[in-house]
Amino acid sequence: MDYRPLGRTGITVSELCLGAMMFGGAGNPDHDASIRIIHRALDAGINFVDTADVYSAGESEEIVGKALADRRDDIVVATKVGLPFDDDPNHRGASRRWVVESVERSLRRLGTDWIDLYQIHRLDPAVDIDETLGALSDLVAQGKIRAFGASTVPASEIVEAQWAAERRGRERFRTEQPPYSILARAIENDVLPTTLRYGMGVLTYSPLAMGWLTGGYRIDAEKPESGRAGRFPARFDLGLEVNQRKLAAADALAKLAEEAGMTLIELAIAFVVRHPAVTSAIIGPRTLEHLESQLPAAGIALSTEVLDRIDEIVPPGVTLNAEDNMSFTSALSAAARRR
């Protein structure tokens, strides 16, 4: 397992980060099984765990807290706030009111006195960025969080937040958490270069493109069952041309992985952590078997030839299906484009 600096925070983290979204009722409801997965990841050298308040309505944080009860000092814990937590209109967003309340809830669920990395799950267009930065800066001063970042932020808004922090004398966003995979490379255009310029750490999510890069999506094979297909039809409907392109790319990548002597899972994750701007790739196993299939990606160095072949299949900066950008910007929504 390789270890890297998390931007300029002074914190060192593993190249693979254990994502906890699948722990709890929305994924694996067996707490003991989830804890075994976490412990296996830690034993394999992972020292970085990422969760969020909304994952299974706080249950994921509780599981992570129980799993780390005796190992808290050795693990870098990241969690998030911002997506709607429940039906209360004030239990969402990035206002000072909710950020200050939510961090206390997360601390209790995690059973800890501090959070290493506290992230805004999505920036809130209804809240002045200075209010969010001010609340987070106060939490750093109080010792409740060590550093803070955000997730799925367009490059222009990353720059705006950095400038606002400098002008107002606030702590700044130290990390970004964007979606990134071989099938979704849009962030190579501007987000990743921007994070490099500002010395930010980057922990990417969905390196397996929501299952498309697990090896199950082949042209002549029966498509695997997926609960996500019902929730995200635009990303899985093979009647759409963009998804036919994804299928062809996934098939070509699987063949490339076989030629290179590795699984497609290993190829996909190794590709993500090879980018110089990426600190850590978040893997999100639901079962121990999922974890074991992903751990071997650590330490794999893809050759220049393999990387060039990947670029031929999916060119740099290209996302084959725009839906895979995970609502990367709201500027293209109908509401933002029409008076």
What's the helix and strand layout?
Layout: E1 3-5, E2 12-14, E3 16-19, H1 31-43, E4 48-50, H2 59-67, E5 76-81, H3 96-110, E6 115-120, H4 129-141, E7 145-151, H5 155-168, E8 175-177, H6 191-197, E9 201-204, H7 227-231, H8 233-236, H9 241-260, H10 264-274, E10 280-283, H11 288-294, H12 304-313, H13 334-337
Parallel strand pairs: 3-4, 3-10, 4-5, 5-6, 6-7, 7-8, 8-9, 9-10
Antiparallel strand pairs: 1-2
CATH H-level superfamily title? NADP-dependent oxidoreductase domain
Number of beta-strand segments: 10
| Architecture (CATH level 2) name | Alpha-Beta Barrel
- Major beta sheet, specifics? 8 strands, parallel, barrel
**Average pLDDT metric:** 95
Q: How many individual domains?
A: 1
- By secondary-structure content and strand pairing, the structural class works out as alpha/beta
Report on the structure:
- This protein is α/β, with parallel strands linked by helices.
- The chain is built from 13 helices and ten strands.
- The protein has one domain (3-215, 265-302): NADP-dependent oxidoreductase domain (TIM Barrel).
- Strand 5 (76-81), helix 3 and strand 6 (115-120) form a beta-alpha-beta unit.
- Helix 1 (31-43) crosses helix 2.
Question: Short summary of the structure?
Answer:
The protein has 13 helices and 10 strands.
Task: List the keywords.
339 residues; alpha/beta; TIM Barrel; eight-stranded parallel beta barrel; 13 helices; 10 strands; globular; NADP_OxRdtase_dom; AKR; oxidoreductase; oxidoreductase activity; NAD(P)_OxRdtase_dom_sf
